[in-house]
Amino acid sequence: MIPLGPTPGTAALDIGGANIKGSAPDGAASIVPFELWKHPGDLERALVSIIEPLRPLDRLAITLTAELCDCFETKAAGVRHILDSVAGALAPMPPGQRPRVLVWRTDRRLVGIDEARADPIPAAAANWLATAILAGRLAPRGQALLVDVGSTTADIIPIEDGDPAPAGLTDIDRLLSGELVYTGVSRTPIAAIVGELPWRGRMCPVAKEVFATSRDAYLVLGRTGEDPLDISTADGRPATRVHARARLARMLCADPADFTDEHATAAARCVATAQEAEIASAIETVGWRRGRIGALVAAGSGEFLAAAAARDRAEAIISLAREIGETASAAAAAHALRLIAFGRAHGELDGP
């Protein structure tokens, strides 16, 4: 069985395009914003600052999705760049203090960094599978689903008697099956969610521009916390409700002075309803292939949206945030991978 507590000497990182998520040996989770597509050459330096507080380490497990960033010509090139950055971040450490790097793959193997470099594609976008293995330990019997809604995407993964049973392993196959939905609670452009928003009793077509993202809707609704220091927004202004309202106003080509709190709330609810419906549709698409869903594990920074979309579609909803903590749920792949790596190193987890 997968261990659920501290994992001395073992940590894990989930390296995404917009965030690097970590899980320390004591179970503490971290989420560090890093827009890799803007600064690919700075990844090594960012990793040093994240890894250093985790030491001493025997092993560092990594998974990644940042290979899809458009700063890389191919996914293979992206995987290799990320692996080289990890190796570079560890290189200054004395050999006796340098942890072994284990790279997670879609075949459920943890391989060394050289093997991952030689065959990079199985390491691409494998993080969801680690989370699904953890979800399976929480729903060990019957037909279950993991619904993990993050900042950018949502994963809907079938689980059979505690074992992940996805229809496909690549991003393309998962998009085709409905098990990957490219919508999330932070980075998704509003125009990719809705084609129109309410305005003074009518529905108005939105500007097909990246004036606002899903995060603005949830800031207005109070489902996402404000962060005045965070400027990774559509207009580079702070992630606060006031600025979120102004960004939503631009979706209707309106000035903030003409767009009241009432207007903003109505627009935000429209966005939230549309996202919930899209994820609910995917849950039904994936679920009907498996029959009646017993347990549904809701996870991710958008766990609230996962739970809302899952309403009345499963016999029980298990909150991963309640099981392991809110930040750990938002960094679920890193958390799960740390447990997997430790369990396999100590013979406590069956499987390849």
Structural commentary:
This protein has 352 residues and is α/β, with parallel strands linked by helices. The chain has a domain at 10-128 and 327-345: Nucleotidyltransferase, domain 5 (2-Layer Sandwich), CATH 3.30.420.40. It is built from twelve helices and 14 strands. A six-stranded mixed sheet has the order 3-2-1-4-5-6, sandwiched between helices. Strands 7, 8, 9, 10, 13 and 14 form a six-stranded mixed sheet that branches. The longest helix is centred in the C-terminal third of the chain and has 28 residues, at 261-288. The protein is globular and about 65 Å long. The two termini are 13 Å apart. The mean pLDDT is 94.
Layout of helices and strands:
Elements: E1 10-15, E2 19-23, E3 29-33, H1 43-51, E4 59-64, H2 75-90, E5 100-104, E6 110-111, H3 113-118, H4 127-138, E7 143-149, E8 154-160, E9 163-164, H5 171-177, E10 180-181, E11 196-199, E12 202-205, H6 214-220, H7 241-251, H8 261-288, E13 295-299, H9 303-310, E14 316-319, H10 320-324, H11 326-330, H12 332-345
Parallel strand pairs: 1-4, 4-5, 7-13, 13-14
Antiparallel strand pairs: 1-2, 2-3, 5-6, 7-8, 8-9, 8-10, 11-12
Helix pairs in contact: 1-2, 4-12, 6-7, 6-8, 8-9
Number of strands: 14
- What structural class is derived from the secondary structure elements? alpha/beta
Question: Based on CA inertia axes, which overall geometry fits?
Answer: globular
Taking the alpha carbons of the first and last residues, their distance comes to 13 Å
